Amino acid sequence: MERPRVGELAPPDRLLMGPGPSEVHPRVLRAMSTPLVGHLDPSFIDVMDDVQDLLRYAFQTENQWTIPVSGTGSASMEAAIGNLTEPGDTVLVPGNGYFGERMAAMVTRAGGDPVFVEAPWGEPLDPVAVEDAFTEYRPDLFAFVHAETSTGAKQPNVPELTAIAHDHDALVIADTVTSLGGVELRVDEWGIDVAYAGPQKCLSCPPGASPLTLNDRAMAKICTRDTPVRSWYLDLSLLQEYWGDERAYHHTAPITNVYALREALRLVAEEGIENRWERHRRMAGALKAGVEAMGLELNPEDDWWLPSLNAVRLPEGVDDDAVIAFLLEEYGIEVAGGLGDLAGDVLRIGCMGHSARPGNVLTLVAALGDALEAQNAAVETSAGLDATRTLLGR
To answer: Is this entry keyworded Transferase (predicted)?
Structure first.
């Protein structure tokens, strides 16, 4: 067998304005180039402590069990669902987006019985429907998506939903993958028992170490299970020995990714979490004003608009794949098409983390207008740019 002849790695320089990943801050990239140490080295233990403290701040929680799971956001998702779901448990999941369906698949693999509370794609769950579902199904767990990446919709009434679940003695799991670090999220104040996220969206960190937080009530359920968690790797009763006081060996942590997450979270703390929420709202608001002034619409209503992920409805007759390809080939900008019920109807445009900056928003609006005009869509690009500049104060 001949030796492979592979050239140097030379990925293109993209402007990442899709549903994730977002642009990585230069400080985070520098952190990833620092020397490796062992995953039980005393200096790395200090790094682990820092990451846990910084994650508590980002989640707005005092939860002791706040860790980065070694893996992508789907790993923290599966850790949450797989550890809390025991065989025979009924789990209420949302039917208003793509990631509710993924929750249901994970519940089934964990031996549970998923049941849906329905809402149209792009709309939030109605508390009345959630209450009715609890009465009908009597679930042990309730999972919802705080920021639905597939539809650009935010769940606006979280404390009301968690109160319903707790009144029925159920635990609450929140998907905060597209909200942590970019959209208001208050885990303790809102009564969320378990929340998971991904680092590559509003935290602007490469995937590989994914945030997860659990309160004492949730950990008590995990530690008193009748059967072992089906995944050894993601078993939180074992992981707590590594991330808890013992720091006992469980697996080799992704050291470089933990470095990166620490630096990304330092940036969150330096900016201030509420300032960061406001920056995302302001940058995405300028994007929203621009596309609407062009003559386009966002998929969700204003009351549940998700600043970090904007689902822009395409004009009739416009091919989403052609727009995506034009933006990538002509401008080096990455956006994405719709998923599930919205496939072919929307573009998903991220405004997250380090990507949520004035120059990026202006560039995106101009390029989007050009891409749509190339398909003979009746859009007013100049009006869009004027609206965006006004909101940005330019």
So the answer is: yes
Is residue 3 classed as helix, strand or coil in its secondary structure?
coil
Q: Which of the 8 DSSP states describes residue 222?
A: H
Residue ranges, CATH 3.90.1150.10, the chain: 273-392
If you average pLDDT over every residue of the chain, what do you get? Answer: 96
73-97: b (≥16 Cβ within 10 Å) or e: bbbbbbbbbbbbbbeebbbbbbbbb
Dihedral sign (CA 291, 294, 298, 301): positive
Query: For 273-392, CATH number?
Result: 3.90.1150.10
Q: What is the DSSP letter of 21?
A: P
Ramachandran sector of residue 211 (left: φ over 0; alpha: ψ -120 to 50; beta: rest): beta
The answer to whether the pTM exceeds 0.90 is: yes
User: Residue 246: which pLDDT band, with cuts at 50, 70 and 90?
Assistant: confident
199: cis peptide before it, omega within 30°?
Answer: no
Q: Which residues contact 303 (CB under 8 A, 6 or more apart)?
A: 156
pLDDT of 52 over the 90 cut = yes
CB 210 within 8 A of CB 176: no
Average pLDDT estimate for 100-128? 97
Locate CATH 3.40.640.10 in the chain. Answer: 26-270
Indicate the SS3 state at residue 221. helix
326 to 5, 65, 69, 130: CA distances (angstroms): 32, 45, 36, 42
The predicted-structure confidence for 262-304, as pLDDT tens digits, reads as follows: 999 999 999 999 999 999 999 999 999 999 999 999 999 999 9
Query: pLDDT tens, 156-196?
Result: 999 999 999 999 999 999 999 999 999 999 999 999 999 99
CATH code assigned to 26-270: 3.40.640.10
